[in-house]
Write a sequence for this structure.
């Protein structure tokens, strides 16, 4: 890299760091009233720490040297009162600042979660769940460790340092200047170590994200790993990531561990200078013993805040690396926004039209290449085609998970981009091949789309979905607690509950993705009956893998490479002897091999 390039990169890093700090400071705005109270307590605590050495040195020259024991006792009582006030103030500032910081960090977590909920599906297509969880948990926890517990102490040390410097320069200008000679060296040392530490901590935050992603993936797929004898390979891959995270942390610790001894050396150097020059001044009569004593006490107090602040500054590099990752996530473009003039979609009839719809997940790579279709209210539309043909993408367009690249998707003649997404999706139900249930009761899972539903409405939906009898046979009925992803229910039982969930929201448009696959014959019969009830009077789009399930569809759309290559009823397409007829024959085992 050229010198100019290096300078530009350095300036860019400084600007980015400044931006990160400024954005973090924005989180303090809601606490404008509490911050002055906390700062007042900080100043009181710092003042009590700064006044002690002065009074002790003064007592040596004016009380102990003169044998004024009564005055000394009064001074000690005054010091006791001052330090008691200081303890009260320090405790108050820790409580107050801790109160502010924990609420601030809770808001930061809430912002991350809200952002994750609003991001488009395209973001999750390219992101790992474990890394996102790491930003919400590990990165915020790193900020908490750096700021949540020590920021009150840091503020106290800043004001203590100011008070000590003022006191030292006021007592003896020469000794004060001598004590401060090492400060530039400390600032330079801190800056160098912080720069090195920040680079290493940035790597640690990245590697812990990768490690979390790998851990989340491997735990979720442990059954497949054992089934395919991949356990040892997974262990080896995890070991590589774990070692990378370990090495990054070792390098960061190596930098920070060398920092404190360097500061201690400068502290010792300054103390030796004060002892030598202070002793000389005392011997020559240019300074009293009390003044030198006060200075020695101040020097110890002077470098303790600097040590703590310097250590905090290096630790904060890890926090800033975490904040960078957090703000990068918060800066991701949110979900498809409602148009400024978007309106609530009224109750629909269920007419769906695709007008020359084009779409691509990646620029220049169209998945849908001019799709035209017209579904009338109450019709069942079957989507047939191979993997990657564009069936799921068509469904995504109806739900407006993505916006079309060209053309328009309309419901009842209204472009879906002109209405709010919430009002659109409120009228669309979906039952997938692998529906996800959540930790909670059976009733809560059925009411997932309508949390305000009454118990009677939930039970009515379950009866329509042919799952009421099964639920009432459970130990706690509708209040039975389910585990992660609906454990321990079978695939078929989860499917029936998912159908009940769709029934409860009473959608005008229904989307089914081969809802009867991967279940036993007896349960399939229950599911088929429930689906037939659910489809009644609704416009439905069915992604069909088993063509025998869509023989009664109003329209069968055969999708190939993002285009509708055949369209008609089952009987019409069989008579045409084209792509669909060949696929149907292959599934029945009657196709002729040429």
């Amino acid at each position: 890299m050229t010198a100019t390039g290096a300078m530009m990169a350095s300036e860019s890093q400084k600007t980015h760091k400044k931006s990160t700090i400024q954005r973090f400071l924005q989180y303090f705005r809601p606490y404008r009233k509490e911050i002055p109270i906390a700062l007042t307590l900080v100043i009181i605590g710092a003042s009590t720490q700064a006044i002690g050495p002065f009074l002790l040195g003064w007592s040596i020259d004016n009380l102990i040297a003169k044998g004024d024991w009564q005055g000394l006792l009064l001074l000690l009582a005054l010091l006791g009162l001052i330090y008691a006030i200081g303890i009260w103030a320090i405790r108050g500032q820790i409580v107050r600042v801790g109160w502010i910081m924990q609420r601030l960090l809770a808001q930061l977590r809430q912002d991350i979660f809200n952002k994750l909920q609003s991001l488009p599906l395209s973001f999750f297509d390219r992101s790992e769940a474990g890394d996102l969880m790491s930003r919400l948990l590990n990165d915020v926890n790193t900020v908490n460790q750096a700021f949540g517990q020590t920021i009150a102490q840091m503020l106290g040390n800043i004001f203590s340092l100011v008070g000590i410097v003022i006191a030292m320069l006021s007592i003896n200008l020469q000794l004060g200047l001598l004590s401060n000679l090492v400060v530039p060296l400390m600032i330079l040392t801190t800056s160098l170590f912080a720069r090195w530490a920040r680079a290493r901590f940035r790597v640690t935050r990245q590697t812990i994200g990768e490690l979390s992603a790998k851990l989340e993936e491997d735990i979720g797929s442990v059954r497949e790993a054992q089934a395919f004898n991949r356990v040892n390979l997974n262990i080896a891959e995890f070991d590589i990531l774990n070692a990378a995270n370990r090495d990054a942390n070792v390098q960061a610790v190596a930098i920070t561990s060398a920092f404190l001894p360097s500061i201690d050396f400068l502290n010792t150097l300054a103390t030796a200078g004060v002892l030598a020059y202070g002793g000389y001044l005392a011997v020559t009569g240019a300074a009293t013993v009390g003044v030198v004593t006060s200075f020695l006490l101040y020097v110890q107090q002077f470098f303790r805040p600097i040590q703590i602040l310097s250590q905090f500054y290096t630790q904060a590099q890890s926090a800033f690396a975490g904040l960078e990752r957090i703000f990068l996530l918060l800066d991701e473009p949110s979900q498809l926004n409602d148009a400024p003039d978007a309106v609530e979609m009224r109750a629909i009839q269920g007419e769906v039209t695709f007008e020359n719809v084009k779409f691509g997940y990646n620029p220049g790579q169209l998945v849908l290449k001019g799709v035209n279709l017209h579904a009338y209210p109450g019709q069942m539309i079957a989507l047939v085609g191979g993997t990657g043909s564009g069936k799921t993408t068509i469904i995504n367009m109806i739900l407006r998970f993505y916006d079309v690249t060209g053309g328009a998707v309309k419901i009842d003649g209204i472009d879906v981009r002109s209405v709010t997404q919430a009002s659109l999706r409120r009228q669309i139900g979906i039952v997938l091949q692998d529906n996800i249930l959540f930790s909670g009761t059976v009733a809560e899972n059925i009411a997932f789309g309508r949390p305000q539903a009454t118990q009677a409405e939930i039970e009515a939906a379950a009866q329509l979905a042919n799952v009421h009898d099964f639920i009432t046979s459970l130990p706690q009925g509708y209040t039975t607690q389910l585990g992660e992803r609906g454990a321990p229910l079978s695939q078929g039982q989860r499917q029936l509950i998912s159908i009940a969930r769709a029934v409860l929201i009473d959608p005008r448009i229904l989307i089914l993705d081969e809802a009867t696959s991967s279940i036993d014959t007896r349960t399939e019969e229950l599911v088929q009956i429930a689906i037939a009830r659910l489809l009644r009077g609704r416009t439905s789009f069915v992604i069909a893998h088993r063509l025998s399930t869509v023989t009664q569809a109003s329209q069968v759309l055969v999708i190939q490479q993002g285009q509708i290559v055949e369209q008609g009823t089952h009987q019409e397409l069989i008579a045409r002897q084209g792509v669909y007829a060949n696929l149907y024959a292959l599934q029945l085992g009657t196709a002729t091999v040429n």
Remarks:
- Residues 1-12 have pLDDT under 50 and may be disordered.
- The domain at 352-588 is CATH 3.40.50.300 (Rossmann fold).
- The radius of gyration is 35 Å.
